[in-house]
């Protein structure tokens, strides 16, 4: 479904990502692992064009994502939900409104600006929160929550976007073990129950092994491992 061909990103004459070619099957849970600076974040951000490729192509169901501009690019971004290490919620807004922000790309923006969310959208957002045991916090300000709670809200926001892909960039890097498990379980649930394809940057090999069907190891912007978690024996 998602095909990456010779994807490259240069900063000056350094290659952050160097000719990566991959096929990613619909419904898979792919872990991208590697040391800090390996190119994981740049790779993930190129997939939804938060970072611009220097070379190569990204094809999604036959469409050349690298060539999209304007409205077509916005439509593509709506199909990819991003999860960031630092959650990226709007702290002064309540939790339910933050989740509804995931609908921005699915609803005319003047309605969202006027807070004219439909009862159906509110119910959808609340159900997404309840799915992660966060329903009781719907009325709280986002900045009152713990990191693990905020990340679960961010995943609920991603789900109401009804994405084809979730791109999670070190989603648990700033969380304690308990919250790490809750957040990874939430991503696994989105993958298994809703069939959303998940690409997740991780620096913990143990986590990658526990959750991912497939691991892609990067070093210096190149793929140095691609296979089942089970087959990975050495640290990349
Ligand atoms: P990772 O996510 O694996 O830590 P990154 O994709 O963040 O790796 O970075 C890969 C390489 O690209 C690093 O050498 C990093 O310093 C460089 N890099 C990333 N973003 C930029 C940028 N905006 N400007 C210059 N260099 C960058
Ligand atoms: P810039 O030109 O500054 O890179 P962008 O519009 O590409 O501006 O992105 C700005 C910020 O908006 C990003 O860092 C990210 O936090 C957020 N953002 C943009 N697109 C998306 C998206 N598809 N999903 C989630 N967040 C996004």
Automatic annotation (TrEMBL):
InterPro entries, per database record: AAA+_ATPase, ABC_transporter-like_ATP-bd, ABC_transporter-like_CS, ABC_transpr_PhnC, MetN_ABC_transporter-like, P-loop_NTPase
GO annotation, cellular component aspect: membrane
Domain ABC transporter as annotated: residue spans: 2-236
SUPFAM superfamilies to which the protein is assigned, alphabetical: P-loop containing nucleoside triphosphate hydrolases
Gene Ontology molecular function: ABC-type phosphonate transporter activity; ATP binding; ATP hydrolysis activity
Domain of life: Bacteria
Keywords for the protein's UniProt record, in alphabetical order: ATP-binding, Cell membrane, Membrane, Nucleotide-binding, Translocase, Transport
This protein's record includes keyword Amino-acid biosynthesis: no
Family: Belongs to the ABC transporter superfamily.
Protein name per the record: Phosphate-import ATP-binding protein PhnC
Species whose genome carries this gene: Methylobacterium symbioticum
């Amino acid at each position: 479904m998602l095909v990456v061909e010779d994807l490259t990103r240069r900063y000056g004459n350094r290659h952050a990502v160097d000719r990566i070619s991959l096929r990613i099957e619909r419904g898979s849970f792919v872990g991208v692992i590697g040391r800090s600076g390996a190119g994981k974040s740049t790779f993930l951000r190129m997939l939804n064009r938060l970072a611009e490729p220097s070379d190569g192509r990204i094809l999604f169901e036959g469409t050349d994502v690298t060539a999209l501009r304007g409205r077509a690019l916005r439509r593509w971004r709506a199909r990819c939900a991003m999860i960031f290490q630092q959650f990226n919620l709007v702290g002064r807004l309540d939790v339910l409104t933050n989740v509804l922000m995931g609908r921005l790309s699915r609803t005319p923006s003047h309605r969202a600006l006027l807070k004219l969310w439909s009862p159906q959208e509110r119910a959808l957002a609340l159900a997404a929160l309840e799915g992660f045991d966060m329903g009781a916090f719907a009325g709280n300000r986002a900045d009152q929550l713990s990191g693990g709670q905020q990340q679960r809200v961010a995943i609920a926001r991603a789900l109401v976007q009804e994405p084809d892909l979730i791109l999670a960039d070190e989603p648990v890097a700033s969380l304690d073990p308990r919250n790490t498990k809750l957040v990874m379980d939430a991503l696994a649930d989105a993958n298994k129950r809703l069939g959303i394809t998940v690409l997740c940057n991780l620096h913990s090999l143990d986590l990658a092994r526990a959750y991912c069907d497939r691991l892609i190891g990067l070093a210096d912007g190149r793929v140095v491992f691609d296979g089942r978690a089970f087959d990975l024996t050495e640290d990349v």
